[in-house]
What does this fold into?
Amino acid sequence: MYVNFLSYAGGFWPKTAEQTLMDQSVYPYLAARTAQPARYGLIPMDFSDFHVNVLQLLIDKNFTA
It folds into this structure.
């Protein structure tokens, strides 16, 4: 079992900072590695309902690798 996390703590309003983190770092990282086998496991994250594109990539990766 794998456990990772996506959370932000940096002195800014978390909801705004989290969106920037997801758009500029997490989503491009996952999208660039869709063809590579990997399992990311359980990933607690802040405001997950605002990041449906990231959630779908994680779900696809965990069930197709």
In short: The chain has one domain: 14-64. Residues 14-64 form one domain. The chain has a mean pLDDT of 79. Helices lie at 14-32, 52-64.
